[in-house]
Amino acid sequence: MMRTRTSAAARSPFRRPAPLVLPLAWGAVAVVWRFWCPPAGEPGLPMRIATSVVFLSVGVGLVLGLRRGPVRELARVRAVAAATQRVLLRPPPARLDGLALAAGQLSATRGATVGGDLYEAVATPYGVRIVIGDVRGHGLAALGAVVAVLGSFREAAHDEPELGGVLRRLERALERHLRDRARDEHPARAETEPRHPAAEEFVTLLLLEIGFDGRLSVFNCGHPGPYRLGGRVERLPVGDPLPPLGVLPLPADLVPHAAAELLSGETLVLHTDGAEEARDHRGRFFALEAFLAGRAGETPAALVRGVHAALLHHTGGRLVDDVALLVVRNDRVRVPAQPAEPGLRRSRPAPSAHG
What we know:
Layout: H1 2-15, H2 21-36, H3 45-88, E1 95-96, E2 99-106, E3 117-124, E4 127-135, H4 143-159, H5 163-185, E5 203-210, E6 215-221, E7 227-229, E8 233-235, E9 257-261, E10 267-271, H6 274-277, H7 288-292, H8 300-315, E11 323-330, H9 342-347
Antiparallel strand pairs: 1-2, 2-11, 3-4, 4-5, 5-6, 6-9, 7-8, 7-10, 10-11
């Protein structure tokens, strides 16, 4: 492994000027033509045309050679961004503990594949736990908070038996991230608690647990409630909202809202506010609830693709905020308890008189 890295590093200085070899060769030909080729000094239109063609070729070669490097660098940056998205916002499995899932994101930053929205779903001994959130702002500047919250959730979801303990861990992870970022931006204040706009960032999120019986436990930290698709489309009740993480401390007692249920065959559409605040050229908001009406039978993946396509059509491809979707359908089948068959009861022999 070490030998491979050393050889690659040794070859890199020779690879960098490689795109300039052809333009420099053309330039050398042009100089030789101009100063050492006798016909080049002769007057007349044909010679001037020939000289112009030589120098034009050199110019075109230089432009193409110099452009090749940035194009390759852009391709590498895009590959790194795609790999980053696969790590941060990895697609959930198509099936998770009897649930069908799909997720996706649209970034408002041109050329970016990641932004300020986050989502994740994991199967735990306590049920399937899901988080979806929105960092204040969007684009690459919000990635630090996304990393802090998602990293904490992926650990706490398995470790904490209570959903409130998971939420508390997310709050602490975000606080550490904001303090560290503020200290990095103002190292002179490293001995005191930083007070900087970075410390004013916050994250709205929805933390949800789907029990094995389909019962839902929800914490809503200033985030839009999801839609439930069954016989009709309705907002899922999520209880009184808590403050977004990073704005105010969470209350001492954390009790999730637990009055809702996701029945077999029903679908839950979790989203960030960018899905409902997207506007067209006339300033009209995207009607997400109306779009979901009548689509209860679609698969989660089809719903995500359909909402994304409708959003891009509504806005003309000009999103002003990131949009994240996570769709969950309960595919668990409930088998009612069956009474014993009459034939089996009759086949049991009657007790004899002799015991």
